[in-house]
Amino acid sequence: MSKVIFDANFDNLDEIRDIVGEAARQVGFSDKEIYAIQLAADEASSNIIEHAYAGITGGKLEIDLSTTDKTLKIVMRDQGKPFDPSSVPEPNVKADLSERKIGGLGMYLMRKLMDEVSYESSAERGNILTMIKRLGESG
Amino acid sequence: MDVSTKQFKNCDMVVVNGRVDSSTAPQLAEALENVTGDGRYKIVVDMSGLEYMSSAGFRALLSSQRQCKRYNRGEIVLASVPERIQEALELAGFTELFKTYSDPIDAVGSF
């Protein structure tokens, strides 16, 4: 289990992808899966920085990584605006160019790339996003 | 991440290298806007040196594709898309919105 606290800033996305990639490598994920996990972690972090901390400076993003021999669990905590994932409509990834909306694409990718994605929001603990990827499952 | 632009007779090529995420996507968007701002709407994005692209990069491409395709005046095509990035584009349904070429020269020749 390792815990790292980042300033909620896009400049830290490189390092976030690095630590998540390293944890995924230790579990034994393939290069393709490692890329997918890094992309999911990037999309999650970007959403937190862009939306949860919109208009808020000095926010922190805490990332807990825990591994077993077959799973990687990523927990991200922030103290930004509460987030209700059901408020974000799933994007229509078959819409034509004029109808295509980019909003919600990050979350859509997270759900597609990881085996489990869940959210909690509470006044005391802030927002908690949990993502799990298991070895040997597609997604 | 670094991005550069080359002008050809019938199109422009935007070469993007490294990693495009929420931090660096604005540079890609700016490079594309500089081309379209000059009234040039036929663009090849050469991705052969691209290591990574998140949805922030997809958003920049989508926004410029709308600019380029307006009034049928041109389009953005993608060249030498690395496998991982191709998979993410497919997942996002973006491969329907952009023609892709395995060779940048073929992409230039398509205009």
Summarize it.
Chain A has helices at residues 13-27, 31-52, 105-113, and strands spanning 2-7, 60-67, 71-78, 116-122, 126-134. With 139 residues, chain A is of the alpha+beta class.
Please summarize the sheet with the most strands of chain A. Answer: 5 strands, antiparallel
Low-confidence stretches of chain B: none
CA-atom Rg of chain A in angstroms: 15 Å
Largest sheet descriptor of chain B: 6 strands, mixed
Q: What is the typical, i.e. mean, pLDDT of chain B?
A: 97
Helix content of chain A: 25-40%
Number-wise, the strands of chain A total: 5
Query: What coarse outline of chain B follows from CA principal-axis ratios?
Result: globular
Distance between the termini of chain B: 27 Å
* Whole-number total of structural domains of chain B: 1
Give helix and strand order of chain A, one letter per element, not per position: EHHEEHEE
Mean pLDDT of chain A: 93
Describe this structure in words.
The complex is a heterodimer of chains A (139) and B (111). Chain A has three helices and five strands, in the order E-H-H-E-E-H-E-E. Chain A has 139 residues and is an alpha+beta fold. In chain A, strand 4 and strand 5 form a beta hairpin. Chain A is globular and about 40 Å long. In chain B, helix 1 links the parallel strand 2 and strand 3. The longest helix of chain B is centred in the middle third of the chain and has 15 residues.
Question: Descriptors for this entry?
Answer:
heterodimer; A: 139 residues; five-stranded antiparallel beta sheet; 5 strands; globular; B: alpha/beta; six-stranded mixed beta sheet; 6 strands
Question: What's the structural blueprint in terms of helices and strands?
Answer:
The complex is a heterodimer of chains A (139) and B (111).
Chain A: E1 2-7, H1 13-27, H2 31-52, E2 60-67, E3 71-78, H3 105-113, E4 116-122, E5 126-134
Antiparallel strand pairs in A: 1-2, 2-3, 3-5, 4-5
Chain B: E1 2-7, E2 12-20, H1 25-37, E3 42-46, E4 50-53, H2 55-69, E5 75-79, H3 83-91, E6 99-101, H4 104-109
Parallel strand pairs in B: 2-3, 2-4, 3-5, 5-6
Antiparallel strand pairs in B: 1-2
Helix pairs in contact in B: 1-2
